[in-house]
Each structure stands twice: as C-alpha cells, then as structure tokens.
Inverse folding.
C-alpha cells in the first residue's frame, strides 16, 4: 500500500535533519531558565506588594522609660503618648505591644531570655495610619515634648529602598528573560543551519522543481516550531515543581500560612500572574522557533538562483 | 518560447552564477567561505555568445563533445544558473531581468531529466514522481491516479514503494523521467537520458518524448549517442568549446 499522507510527507528529510533530540532538549533548558526568571519576577512583585501594603501605612513609636510619669500630664509617659497618638487625625489605631509580643520580636537577637532582661526596654507602639502620606515630623516633635526621648520610626524610607531593590531585581529577571530568548533563537538558528547543510542536496532538488522560498522555509519552520513547542512544554513542566517549592519557601514572607505537604495549598502559593505566564512560555518558544527558522532558511536560500 | 541573445555563462566558485543585476547579498558573500583560499580570479567563461530561438512545440537534439557545454546550456534553460551576460527569454519571461520570485513558477513549467537523476533518496519512487504535483498543490486523489498510471507506463508499477537506492540505474532513470513529465511541462529538457537504458528502453523513451512533443511540448535532448540521433533524425543544436557551431531550423 502506498502511503498517501501528504501531511506526513517529508520531502526534505527534515525528520532526520532536524532531529527530535537536541533541539527540544536545549529549548527545554532555555524554557526552564525562563520559567525560573519569571518565577523570580512574580515572586518579587508579590512580596514587595505585600510588604508595601503591610508597612506602608505604619509607624513604630518607641517610648523609653514608659512607666515613669509624664511631664505636665497625668498618667505614665506611655499613656500620654498613646492618647496623643489616638487624638491625631490620620491615625487609625495605636497599640502598645504587650511584654510577650515584644519578647517575641526581640528573641532572634536576645534569645529566649529576652522577656526577663534587666536592661530597660522601651515600650513599642505599633501605629496604623489611614493615609500613607502623613507628615510625621510635627507628630514626632509633639510626642517628644510629652515624653522626651520618644522615637518615631517612619517606614517610608524603607518602602522607597524596597521599591528600588524590587525594581532592580525585576529588571534583572527581565534581562535574564531577554538573554534566554536570544540564546534560544541562536540555538534554533544553529540547528536550522546544520539542517540546511545536511539537506543541501534535497533542498536544491526541490528548489529546482519549482518550490518557492517560502515553501521550503515553511517546511523548516513547521519542524522547528514543533520541536521548540515540545521543548517549551517540557521545560515548563519540569520548572513547575521547583517553582512550587520556592513559592512555598516564600509563603511565610508574604503572610500566608505554611502548611508543608499539602499539594493544593502549595499550588495556591504560586503568584496568579505566573499561572498565566507559565503556559505562555511554550507559545513563545514556538514563536521563536518559527520566526528564527523561517528567517534563517530564507536568508540561506538567497544563494540559490 | 525560448530565445538566447548573445548569452555568456561563467560559473562562480559556488557552482551558481551571481544574479545578473544588483549587488550580491550577504548570504552570497558568506558562501565564499567554501572557496579555496588564494584562488580568487574568476573561472573561465564556459558558454560564449549563444544566440538562437525556438518556437513552441519544437524538438531539438543538443549535440557536442564532452565538455562542450551541453549540460551548462541546459542548466541555463532549467534556471539552475542565470546568464552572466546576454539576454535569455524562457516561456515569455525575460530571465535575465526577472525578479527571483518569478522563477519558481517558471521552473514548474519545465521538466528536467538529469544526467545523474537527482532523485530524493529518502522518498519512495512514488513520492519522487508525485513531488512536482504536490509542489504544484494538486489534489491528492488526482496525484495518486496520475502517478500510478505513469509508473505503469514506464514499467515500474512493482517498485512504487521502493527507495531509489534499491532500483537499478535504468529503473532510477525511468523514475527521473516520470518525475520530469508528470506535470506535462511546456518545456522538457533531458541530459543524456538514455545513458543507463538498453536499446529497447531507449526506444520506448524516445517514443514518449515524441508523443509529448506531438501534443505540444518543446523537447531538447542532450546526448552523445550518435546511433540514437541517427535513428531519430531531427534538427540539432551543436556545441563546440562553448560556442554554437550549428543551428538547424525546423524542416
Ligand atoms: N558547477 C560548475 N562549476 C564550474 N565549472 C563547471 C561547472 N559545471 C561545468 N563546468 C565547466 O563547464 C564546462 C562545460 O561543462 P558541461 O558539463 O556543460 O559539459 P557537457 O557538454 O555537458 O559535457 P558532458 O558531455 O561530459 O556531460 C566544462 O569545462 C566544465 O569544467
Ligand atoms: Mg553533461
């Protein structure tokens, strides 16, 4: 029986000239790296978003010698500062941290003895603001006059530093993506050139029989697209578990509960944007394969009459 | 139909001739990497001042000693090389000035039987013969019917599925001939087509060529085989050292 399936008709012998081993493997490696870079991008974005909303509208106020009585006001210095804070427009809440909360904060630095230190520890007040843009300088001055030595720590400067760091890291991830895409294109171009040289005679024959440049380039591009897609799918699938592990490790920093071992929770820890971007990787790999192979073959064919 | 005016041909070292007009592309220049180093002077001209004209439906022998330039002249006619000088008009298209994109369509109207067959080794005999039809985008059902019938006619029905490497020289030549005529080309060029055939097969081939010629195909056959020419008298173009030394007209 004659095989009459032009869809599988391989007149240029590309099934062997562009083998299904090396190219998909290399593209898979590139896609894997791209997936990690993407994971980094989205991870940084969601962490910084979390920190910004968490820290952006907050102040920390330290009151040394908190239980002493305030100057010219009834009650302790701490009570005076607290009442001044709650009376300030723009302040949503002001809450003095309890002794054990403070101990928990200090534990990493002072060990478990932090709760029973003989050193005087200032009281710490966590303040939440309604607006991010409250000017803290006059507030700090008023607090200091009520309880001298009181420190107001504005988080805005940290937010700015964090934003700068975030943008730099994201730029690096973006740069990595561009480099990976360029390397993938180079890999496809090299493989296509090798295929052209291996199939030079068949190409010349088919060209002589009246095949157009776009026909021949299309045959190569179809093959390269298929191989790149396989590589792209493979690379993304391999990257997924690693991204899940990383997302799980990052979960505590973005305030999500850590429940190791539960796969469904693990899936939810991936930034949602990544769920959209990850399936795009094989499509991008396919596009790179198509465009690169098409262009490479067309340029090469210009040497034929 | 076919008009040569003072055509000259000089090969470049890649085996092609540069486009008649315009600068060479970057790809062309890079192909220089395969050139032997230190030998940059141009190759000698192999065809000089070729001028003749053929009407549609003509039959011509192309004769001349080995190295006279018969294959080179056919290469000009099937657009494997372009003239380095002069003017060449093929099937109404001015080849010397035509854009590259105009050539594939022209090639599909020209059938060629090569001296060395030039079959695709990884395809079956059937697929080799079907290739021109597929490149022309014919429906698969028609392809199957046409190819099967022609393969029966050249006596290769039993070998449809075999690759060329498993066929004898004569059988491969018949596959090459079938591939050349399957599209009913307007111009049929054959380079030493009987080289691997016995006398009976050569006669059969000549009958096929004459039949195609009778229904309007222009046929040019290059050969050394003087006996074959004697048995089938027809006008001839004779080449000697790259020059046309004899141009017969239709009787
Ligand atoms: N690809 C090529 N590159 C450079 N020179 C070539 C090329 N092909 C042929 N020639 C030269 O062109 C000249 C004519 O060769 P051609 O093959 O046209 O002769 P021919 O008449 O077909 O000979 P034969 O009867 O032996 O086949 C020869 O001198 C040959 O060396
Ligand atoms: Mg020859």
């Amino acid at each position: 029986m004659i095989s009459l399936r032009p869809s599988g008709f391989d007149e240029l012998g590309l099934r062997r000239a562009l083998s299904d081993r090396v190219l998909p493997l290399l593209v898979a490696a590139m896609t894997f790296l791209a997936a990690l870079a993407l994971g980094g991008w989205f991870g940084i974005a969601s962490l910084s978003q979390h920190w910004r909303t968490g820290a952006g509208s907050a102040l920390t106020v330290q009151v040394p010698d908190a239980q002493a009585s305030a100057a010219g006001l009834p009650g302790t210095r701490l009570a005076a500062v607290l009442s001044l804070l709650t009376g300030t427009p723009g302040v949503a809440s002001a809450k003095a941290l309890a002794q054990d909360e403070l101990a928990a904060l200090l534990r990493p630095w002072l060990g478990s003895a932090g709760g029973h230190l003989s050193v005087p520890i200032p009281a710490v007040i966590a303040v939440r603001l309604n607006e991010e843009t409250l000017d803290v300088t006059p507030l700090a001055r008023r607090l200091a006059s009520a309880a001298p030595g009181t420190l107001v720590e504005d988080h805005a400067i940290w937010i700015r530093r964090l934003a700068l760091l975030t943008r730099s890291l994201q730029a690096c991830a973006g740069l990595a993506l561009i480099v990976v895409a360029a390397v993938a294109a180079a890999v496809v171009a090299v493989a296509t050139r090798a295929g052209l040289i291996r199939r030079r005679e068949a190409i010349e024959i088919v060209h002589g029989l009246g095949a157009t440049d776009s026909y021949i380039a299309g045959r190569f591009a179809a093959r390269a697209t298929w191989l790149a897609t396989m590589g792209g799918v493979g690379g993304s699938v391999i990257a997924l578990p690693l991204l899940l592990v990383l997302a799980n490790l990052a979960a505590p920093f973005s305030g999500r509960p850590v429940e190791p071992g539960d796969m469904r929770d693990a899936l939810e820890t991936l930034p949602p944007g990544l769920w959209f971007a990850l399936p795009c990787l094989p499509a991008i790999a396919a596009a790179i394969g198509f465009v690169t192979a098409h262009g490479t073959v067309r340029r090469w064919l210009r040497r034929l009459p | 139909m076919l008009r040569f005016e003072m055509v000259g041909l000089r090969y470049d070292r890649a085996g092609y001739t540069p486009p008649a007009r315009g600068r060479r592309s970057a790809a062309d220049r890079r192909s220089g990497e395969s050139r032997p180093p230190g030998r940059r002077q141009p190759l000698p001209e192999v065809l000089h001042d070729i001028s003749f004209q053929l009407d549609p439906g003509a039959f011509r022998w192309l004769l001349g000693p080995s190295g006279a330039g018969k294959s080179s002249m056919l290469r000009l006619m099937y657009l494997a090389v372009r003239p380095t000088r002069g003017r060449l008009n093929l099937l109404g298209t001015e080849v010397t000035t035509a854009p590259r994109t105009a050539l594939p369509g022209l090639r599909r109207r020209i059938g060629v039987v090569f001296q060395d067959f030039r079959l695709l080794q990884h395809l079956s005999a059937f697929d080799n013969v079907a290739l021109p039809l597929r490149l022309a985008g014919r429906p698969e059902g028609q392809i199957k019917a046409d190819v099967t019938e022609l393969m029966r006619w050249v006596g290769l029905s039993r070998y449809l599925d075999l690759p060329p490497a498993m066929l004898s020289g004569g059988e491969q030549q018949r596959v090459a001939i079938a591939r050349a005529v399957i599209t009913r080309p307007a111009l049929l060029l054959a380079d030493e087509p009987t080289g691997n055939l016995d006398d009976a097969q050569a006669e059969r081939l000549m009958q096929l060529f004459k039949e195609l010629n009778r229904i309007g195909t222009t046929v040019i056959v290059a050969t050394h085989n003087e006996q074959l020419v004697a048995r089938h008298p027809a006008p001839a173009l004779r080449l000697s050292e790259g020059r046309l030394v004899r141009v017969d007209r239709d009787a």
Residues 107 and 114 of chain A are 6 Å apart (CA to CA). Residues 1-5 of chain A have pLDDT under 50 and may be disordered. The first helix of chain A runs from residue 14 to 17.
